[in-house]
Amino acid sequence: MTFGDSRSPAGRGPRSVPKPKRLAHLRLDPRGYPIIAVIGQAPGDIDFGALSERRKLALATFDLCAVCALPFGEELRWQVSVDEAAATAKTLVSSEAPVHEVCALYAAQVCPFVSSPYARHGDEIRRGLKRPEVTFLTGFRQTARVFGRRSGLQTSERVLHFETTDVEQRLRLSSSAEAIDAYQRALQTEVEVTIDEAEREIATRLTELTTEESEDSGSVMAGAAWFVGGAFCPGVGKVQGMQRFAEDPMYTALARRVLLEPGFAKKFEETDDLYTRAAVKWLNSRDHLPKILASWRNTALNRARHGRPSPGKSGGGIDPRKSKRKLQGAARRKNRR
Ligand SMILES: [Zn+2]
User: Which residues does the annotated region (Disordered) include (predicted)?
Assistant: First the structure.
């Protein structure tokens, strides 16, 4: 998708709009647009219209905003829609990961094409031939479920879906003036997102290029998310881009050990893979896991206790006697592209 295309309707340029403080760590594309957490980040390959399923898995696992990669804390989880029926329902199931309010309003503000759903809802809108007349933003209290399924037609790819529930706020923006006002209000009342060191490390790894190859970190972060419980997301094995993790038994075997052996989870912190280490340290240092991850893990734990295989076809197959070093070496290698 092209930005700055003369056919594109005016969003305000990224340099003319003050940025929320919480976006300060995002890298910028050559035109100055912050590169949001849910899209691939490789230089020369920035496509604001293409969600990365691997990144969505990381966002779901660590429970992060799809724009800034920071936690929600006490803030609501916002979804943007141009469809009134969807926007006013009590529960929304979307292939978009939720975001902070200020992040949603900023993205809509700077350029309607930077973020969902503008970039993806219909060719006419995308090409700038037609603007949605009204944009609906809905603030939900919780993400109730995340799961993989087809995005629509039987032939379509399977993608991750987010079900958000417990609506607490709604915004209806029917003009750019209203959008500007709403954004100004959100900006003025923006609270600082307080995070600990482990959360900072996750946000950094997710929004910076890989340290060794300067590539997009989405794949290595999805692998890391898999180990700490992303493996147990319902339907994840068939989601676009996840075959590598689903088909290699090593990934789910390690995820099961992290789940079932607290001692292993602790030792796994010493892995020399930066991404896995960040994820495992994050996991081990949580007082409470985010609801979604906790539910995935609980289901897998119950299955393991009742002797049923975990979801996906790669529940076992690893010789437990294999040394930790060997597993970790494998994790490191396989986690690369
Ligand atoms: Zn955010």
Answer: 1-20, 300-337
